[in-house]
Structure formats: structure tokens, C-alpha cells
TrEMBL record:
<feature type="binding site">
    <location>
        <position position="251"/>
    </location>
    <ligand>
        <name>iminosuccinate</name>
    </ligand>
</feature>
<dbReference type="GO" id="GO:0008987">
    <property type="term" value="F:quinolinate synthetase A activity"/>
</dbReference>
<keyword id="KW-0662">Pyridine nucleotide biosynthesis</keyword>
<comment type="similarity">
    <text>Belongs to the quinolinate synthase family. Type 3 subfamily.</text>
</comment>
<keyword id="KW-0808">Transferase</keyword>
<dbReference type="GO" id="GO:0034628">
    <property type="term" value="P:'de novo' NAD+ biosynthetic process from L-aspartate"/>
</dbReference>
<feature type="binding site">
    <location>
        <position position="299"/>
    </location>
    <ligand>
        <name>[4Fe-4S] cluster</name>
    </ligand>
</feature>
<feature type="binding site">
    <location>
        <position position="141"/>
    </location>
    <ligand>
        <name>iminosuccinate</name>
    </ligand>
</feature>
<dbReference type="GO" id="GO:0051539">
    <property type="term" value="F:4 iron, 4 sulfur cluster binding"/>
</dbReference>
<keyword id="KW-0479">Metal-binding</keyword>
<dbReference type="InterPro" id="IPR036094">
    <property type="entry name" value="NadA_sf"/>
</dbReference>
<comment type="function">
    <text>Catalyzes the condensation of iminoaspartate with dihydroxyacetone phosphate to form quinolinate.</text>
</comment>
<keyword id="KW-0004">4Fe-4S</keyword>
<feature type="binding site">
    <location>
        <begin position="120"/>
        <end position="122"/>
    </location>
    <ligand>
        <name>iminosuccinate</name>
    </ligand>
</feature>
<feature type="binding site">
    <location>
        <position position="42"/>
    </location>
    <ligand>
        <name>iminosuccinate</name>
    </ligand>
</feature>
<dbReference type="GO" id="GO:0005737">
    <property type="term" value="C:cytoplasm"/>
</dbReference>
<keyword id="KW-0408">Iron</keyword>
Amino acid sequence: EKSERTERIEAALSELGDDVVILGHNYQRREIVEHADFVGDSYQLSKEAAEADAEYVIFGGVTFMAESADIITDDDQTVILPSMEASCPMAGMAEALQVDAAWAEITDAAPDEEIIPITYMNSYADLKAFCASQGGLVCTSSNAHRAFEYAFEKGDKVLFLPDKHLGENTAYRLGMEDAIAKWDPWDPEGKDADEVAESDIILWDGYCQVHERFRVEHIDDIRTEHPDANVVVHPECRREVVEAADVVGSTATICETVENADPGEQWAIGTEIHLTNHLQRWHPEVEVLPLCGDACMDCNAMRQIDPNYLTWVLEELVEGRERNVIEVAPEEKELAEVALDRMLEI
Ligand code: 13P
Ligand code: SF4
């Protein structure tokens, strides 16, 4: 039987018809994902946003994703985020002002070389704009290696922000693990100009507080308890966790891995718990295990998108009121779009 809330959401959606499209990230709660027109990883959602015709794009995700949707959609389309509290902590770890200051130090350390900044999608629009202004671009976890290749065709070094783990895992994927320097903007000892001068890849010291909690011991435990289990993890996990896993990839890759598994196979999933739960529901023929047992790997930014807020923004739209509109400042929008377009082209 349908809940009253589901009925209200459905009623609002049928009233709004083609005016509205709902995009949902793989980490969203079940009640959001069930109402989404499209569910996917950050890259797929940015492509869906670019192709959307609806007047309103309701984003089930976090602020930086909704910002990117606003940048990519046409000016007469409006992006709505059901909760303004849904901010990814990692995106806050590289603020444009702080990066600007660090950029002066980093470029001073290697004055004769061209450094290309790449920012992970998990960043705010002003940082995306900064990267474009220096010849750089955006990437997601599904195309970071290609963004690095693009950057090395144009320049000599890469500054990667904000996620040091995705950066390190990408360097390994490209066989460049010996060329890494770390840049910790919060620690005077954590930034070494000589190291920058000698390295090809400079990693900003950001991280995801959900994925950093996975440890190699979790993989050891799974392999002891389920000797036939395979392990798939997200590249925001620590290097040693990625090394101990069988497969690494974006949330879309994690979905495909389980989708393509044979019935009866066991897969332990090293990512946000809502996706693990969805995969258990979507693929009951596969034995889907959370990598970290009962220690809930829950992203509290994603969890801010409560189905009651979805109901509210939809019902307000029916009444002609736009709530929680995400609008990137025009002066940042143009350059941030360049950074996103470069990604969509590679
Ligand atoms: P994906 O690009 O793999 O969907 O990841 C986004 C994210 O926030 C992971 O923590
Ligand atoms: Fe940000 Fe991590 Fe949550 Fe992804 S899982 S939105 S990176 S805090």
C-alpha cells in the first residue's frame, strides 16, 4: 500500500507533467530514487542534466551536483535542491580563495613549467571556474585518468583537487605513482616547494569522510568470512584499500559490476551504504554484502535530501512557488562551464 507521502509526490508530479525531471544520485535514499526519472553517478547525472528539456530539474544529490546542473542546463531552466543543507564536506576542503593563494606558491615552486589544475566534480563552481581560467578542467571518478592524460598533453604538471585518494589512485592507474607530491594547505610542513619542483602530480589534501573509513582489515574480514566473495570499491577509498580490492570504479561501475555478476556470486561493496542497499534490492540473485558490516557508511550530506523536502518543493511548484533554487553567479558560470565542457569532450 502506498504511503500518504508517496501519493502526494505522485499527485504533484502528475500535475507538473513534463515541466519537471527528477535526477537522483546513486547514494540517495530509496524514497528519492524511486521517484527519480534517472538514477546514476555524477558523470551520468551531468549528462542527463545537459540533455534535460524540463523547465525544472529537481536534483536528488548534493550542492555541487546541483550547481553543475545549473551551469550545464539552459538559462530558462531552473535547478532545485530539496534541502539547502546537502553539502559535500569534501567540496568544502578546497575553497577557491584558499586555492588561489596556494596556486601562487605552487607556481613559484616550478616557474618554468606549466601546471594544469584539475578539480574533481566534488567542488564548488568558483573552483571549477578557477581551473578553467588556468587551462584546466573538471573530472569525475569515471574519467579522472582521461582528464590527467588531457592535462599532460597540454602541460608539464597536474595539480589535483580536492580528493588526494582519487588523485593517488589515478596516478597509480597511469603508472605515475613515483611522481606524486602532497600539498597540505593546513600544515606549513605539508607543502614542500622542492617536492613540487621534482614531481609531476601535486595532490591537494582533501578526502571523503565516508570512503576514508574503509580499511584493509574490512577486506580481510570479508575474505575470511566469505572466501568466495569479490570486492568492489570506489576510488575515493585509500590506496591500500583499492589495492586489496578486485574492482575499483565510480558508482556507475559498481552498479554495472553487480549487474553483470552471475547469479549466486558474492560481491562486497565498498561505498556509501544506500547504494549497497539499492543493489541488494535491484539484484536479489547476487549476494550483495556491505564491505564494512554494521558500521554504517552513511553520507550525511546525501541523507539531507529527505522525501518530505521533495514533497514540499514539488507541492510548492504546483502552487507556482520556486523553493531552494540553486543558481551559480553569472561571473563564475561561464568559466565553470568551460571546465565542465572540457570534461564532457574528453
Ligand atoms: P560518483 O561520481 O562515482 O557517482 O561519486 C560521487 C561521490 O560523491 C562519491 O562519493
Ligand atoms: Fe561527498 Fe563523500 Fe558524501 Fe560523496 S560520499 S557526497 S564525496 S561526503
